[in-house]
């Protein structure tokens, strides 16, 4: 166990360092290109920080034949990503995290609810291979279509604000001494380190979790999801620290969208039939938890309270944290 925990700490250390650098260079790219921190968070940061879920899902369906781990990792990560928002709210200071966030996040959050809801309905419907196109479920092409529609919609929504963004840049540039080439190079190098370390984490987490005797659904939703979500934790908290709040929040909503897209890829690679027909119905618990948590976040983004209801945490962040705990409790009670 000592060696296992040592490997775990090594991975976390690499992610802590490279993840913080990744946030900085992502912020530089947002400033230099004028694409906007929301879009950079939703697409660029989210795709990198979600790659561990991608590799975990592929190995789960192609090598180990454990579809519950693949589904649990994706849906558990969606739930954990929303919990990170509550953590950011605590670290944000006197005001709620959503008070300074761009309302554009409601757009990506809405797409996330649509995609996660589609997965929940598909699990409950439990389609069989004979009623599907080849070996995949009908939800897979729908997920892929919605994903690219979401990316296009968020991009053009952000593009409308480019003129305003450039005006703000003219007043206060943060990274005048860093060139675009340096930003791209720094981002790529640190992304490689984050991906390498985070991809190793699920195997370590699985090794630790297997010794507890817990089921695949619980392990996937809690332990593996926690391990593969480590990059989101580091990148989001570091983005918050450097003042890139929109990039931090965009990373989390974007990661949830990308996570569901990963589930479609897993379905394409699971040749035994529709993936969601082979998983436990208990995954709906995490799916519904993620939907409710995202909806609470959308309310917070819309209402934009200027004060925290409690001294350390706002009411919406507290609600998100409570829903996460209930999700863990309900999944644990379903074991056995």
User: Structural class of the helix and strand makeup?
Assistant: mainly alpha
Most strands sheet: none
Number of helices: 13
Tell me, rounded to a whole number, the average pLDDT. 84
* Residues in β-strands, percent: under 5%
Terminal CA distance? 26 Å
Q: What percent of residues adopt helix (DSSP H or I)? A: over 70%
Based on CA atoms alone, the radius of gyration comes out at 19 Å
User: N-to-C SSE series?
Assistant: HHHHHHHHHHHHH
Unreliable segments (pLDDT under 50, ≥5 consecutive)? none
Account of the protein in words:
The chain is globular and about 55 Å long. It contains 13 helices and no strands. The chain has 336 residues and is an all-alpha fold. The model has no long low-confidence stretch (mean pLDDT 84). The protein is 76% helix and 0% strand. The chain has helices at 2-33, 37-49, 51-62, 67-91, 105-125, 139-159, 162-171, 180-210, 216-228, 230-241, 245-269, 283-303, 315-333. The longest helix has 32 residues, at 2-33.
């Amino acid at each position: 166990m000592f060696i296992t925990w040592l490997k775990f700490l090594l991975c976390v250390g690499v992610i802590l360092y490279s993840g913080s650098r990744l946030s900085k260079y992502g912020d530089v790219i947002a400033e230099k290109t004028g694409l906007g921190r929301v879009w950079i968070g939703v697409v660029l940061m989210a795709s990198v920080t979600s790659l561990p879920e991608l590799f975990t899902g592929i190995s789960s369906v192609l090598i180990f034949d454990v579809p519950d781990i693949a589904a649990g990792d994706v849906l558990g990560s969606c739930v954990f990503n929303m919990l990170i928002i509550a953590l950011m709210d605590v670290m944000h200071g006197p005001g709620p995290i959503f008070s300074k966030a761009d309302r554009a996040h409601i757009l990506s959050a809405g797409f996330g609810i649509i995609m996660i809801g589609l997965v929940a309905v598909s699990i409950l419907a439990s389609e069989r291979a004979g009623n599907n196109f080849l070996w995949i479920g009908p939800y897979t092409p729908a997920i892929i279509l919605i994903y690219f529609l979401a990316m296009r919609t968020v991009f053009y929504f952000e593009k409308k604000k480019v003129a305003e963004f450039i005006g703000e840049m003219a007043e206060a540039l943060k990274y005048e001494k860093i060139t675009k080439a340096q930003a791209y190079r720094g981002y790529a190098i640190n992304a490689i380190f984050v991906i390498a370390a985070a991809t190793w984490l699920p195997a370590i987490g699985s090794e630790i979790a297997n010794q507890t005797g817990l089921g695949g659904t619980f392990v996937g939703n809690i332990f593996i999801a926690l391990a593969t979500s480590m990059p989101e934790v580091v990148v989001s908290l570091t983005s918050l620290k450097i003042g890139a709040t929109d990039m931090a929040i965009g990373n989390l909503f974007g990661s949830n969208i990308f996570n569901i897209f990963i589930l479609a890829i897993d379905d394409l690679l699971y040749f035994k039939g529709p993936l969601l027909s082979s998983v436990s119905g208990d995954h709906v618990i995490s799916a519904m938890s993620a939907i409710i948590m995202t909806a609470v976040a959308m309310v917070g983004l819309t209402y934009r309270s200027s004060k925290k209801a409690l001294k350390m945490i706002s009411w919406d962040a507290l609600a998100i944290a409570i829903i996460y705990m209930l999700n863990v409790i309900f999944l644990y009670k379903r074991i056995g």
